[in-house]
Give the backbone structure.
Amino acid sequence: MEILKIDHLGIAVNSIDEGRNFWSEILGLKFEGAETVAEQKVNTAFFPVGESEVELLESTAPDGPVAKFIEKKGTGFQHVAFRVADIDAALAELKEKNIQLIDQTPRLGAGGARIAFLHPKATGGILVELCERS
Ligand code: ZN
């Protein structure tokens, strides 16, 4: 598979309003607005850092994946997202190699990206996202 770069780092926060204080006010990263991904029960906020971005994730429901993550592990680093040239080809290759996936097929993520998550059991404990942007 062709991995182009680290697209973004996902960081779970209790509140984007509180979280952005550090990233934006202290570190001086530009806040580019929040977006809701209803299917994932999450609000996201992106802060560009050079070629990559920091993504803050705030759950919109107690049973959402980010709320469950925080319940288990606390706030903080949640996932790394790699930009791939062709997400369909990447998933096919991973299936071929019997890598456990959370998403068998790509779904729509923030910013209109096509995304899919790999299971942390298959990656040594890290939640890995693949992301294709046109
Ligand atoms: Zn992400």
User: Anything to note?
Assistant: The beta strands are 3-12, 34-37, 42-49, 52-59, 76-84, 107-108, 114-118, 127-132.
